[in-house]
Amino acid sequence: MRKYRAGASVACAAMLAVWAAGCSGNTDNNPQQGAGADSTGKQAEAKPQEPIEIVLYGGQSNWTEEMFDALYGNAIKKKFPHITPKLIPNSNTPLEQLITTGTPFDLMLVTPSGTRRMVMDYNLHTDLSQMIQANKFDLNRFDKTIIDTQRDIAKGGLYGLPAFTQFQVLFYNRTIFDKFGVAYPKSGMTYDELYETAVKLSRIEGGVKYYGLGTNILWQYRTSQLPVALVDPATNKSAFDDKVKVIFENWLRFFKIPGFEATDRMAKGSDLENMFFKEQTLAMYPHYTNVARRLPDTEVLNWDVVSMPHYKEAAGVAPSVDPYYMYVMSNSKHKQAAFEVAAFLTSTEVQVELAKEGFTPAINTPEVKAAFGLNNKNYKGKNINAFFPEKFAAAPPFSPYYAIADTSIQAVFAEVVAGKKDVNTALREAEATSNKRIEEQIATTGAK
Fold first, then answer.
1. In order of start, what are the domains of the chain with their CATH numbers?
2. How many Cα atoms occupy the beta-carbon half-sphere of 22 within 13 Å?
3. Res 432 pLDDT > 80
4. In which band, very low, low, confident or very high, does the pLDDT at 173 lie, cut at 50, 70 and 90?
5. Please, what is the end-to-end C-alpha distance for the chain in angstroms?
6. What CA–CA distance (Å, rounded) separates 187 from 190?
7. What is the per-residue DSSP string for 315-352?
8. I want to staple 214 with a disulfide (CB 3.0 to 4.6 A). Which of 139, 178, 185, 272 is the partner?
C-alpha cells in the first residue's frame, strides 16, 4: 500500500463526524445494545465499561500506525470510548516474535492465502458462529462467495469477518495504446481478444522494447474464473487436471508472443510491477484492485482499468474475490470486545470511508460505490465500474497446502516460458513436486 496521503487528515475529520453522528443511534451490524428502560419508563443508566486495549496485528497488510489511526483507530475510539485500539505493524514485528514473546493481540488482518501459515499453524483461530448468532450479525450484507470462502476455511464455521476485499482487474497504460494507435481494452472481452491486443503492443519502438501483457501465474490460479482445485482437501493430494492445463496455456501464450523474450523474473511475476509502474514498458497488467491506491500519479502514469477478460465458459464472471478477513484471535482476553470491533468495521459508515481511499469494500451498496476513490485524485475519470462486478467466481476449495501447489506451478511456468520444458512434462513434474512437499509438511507438522 502507498503511504497514507496528506489529504487523509481532512478525510479523517469528515469520517469522524459521520461516525460520531452514527454512534447515537443503531448502525448496521452494531453488536452493542443500548441501555434499556426500567419499569417506570425511564432510561436506565448504562454501567461504565472497564477500559481495555484491543490490539490489531497487521498480518498481511502493511499498514502504518498513521493509516490505522485514520482509517480504523480514531473511529474505534469514538464508537467504543472504553477501548484503546493499538496497531502492531508487521513491518516492525514478525508474527513469530509475537508468538515467542507471548505478546498478546486480539485481531489480525489475513487473506485466505495466509490463513494457514499465520493463523492455523499457531492455533490462533476461533469459531465466531455463536457470537455471530448472539449479536445478530447479518452475513447477508456480504457477497455470498466471501462468506462461503470463510466457511470453507473454518469447515462450516467462521473464523473472521470481512474487512475489505481485493480481486483482479486489468490495468492498462493509455499512453502506450495511444502511441501505437491500438484501441483500449474493454470490459467483457474474451481472453482471445485480449491476446490479439497484446500482440499488437509487443514491439520495439525508438530502441525501447514494449510488452503487451505480463502477469503472475500464481494469481491466475488463486482467483481463476474457471473452477479449479490444485489440492484436493479430502486427500491432501495435487492433481493437475485439464482445467489446470487450460489456465496454464492461456497465460503462457502471452509470454510466447514473437519477440517477447521474457526473463525468468518476468515469468515469475517479479519485475512486472516495476515495468508497469515506473519503466512504462508493459502495456497491460492484471493485478488486484487495491494496487490502484499506490499507482503513480495520473500525470506520471496515464492508467485506466477494465474488468478481467473471461473464458468462453465463464462469460460475465469476475475472478474470485480475495478478502481480507479480520480474525479474532483464540488467545484474546477480550474476544467479545474484539468481535464487536470487527463487526463495527463492516458497518456502512466505515466501509464508505475505506472506499473513499480506494480500498475495495467488503459490502457493495450505492453509498459505498458512490464514495469509491473520492479522496484520491488518481481515480478521477477512471472506469470505477470495473471495481464493482456483478458476479464473482467461486473461490478454489480451501486447502492449507494450496501455496505449495501454486508455487510448484510458478516454478515450472518459468521453465516453459524459457523453452526448457514442454507443458505436459512441466505440469507432471510440478504435480509430483507439490505432492512430495505436502507429504513432507504433513510428516513434520501433522495434517491440518
1. 52-164+323-386 (3.40.190.10), 168-319+400-445 (3.40.190.10)
2. 23
3. yes
4. very high
5. 31
6. 9
7. TT-BPPP-PEEEEEPTT-S-HHHHHHHHHHTTSHHHHH
8. 272
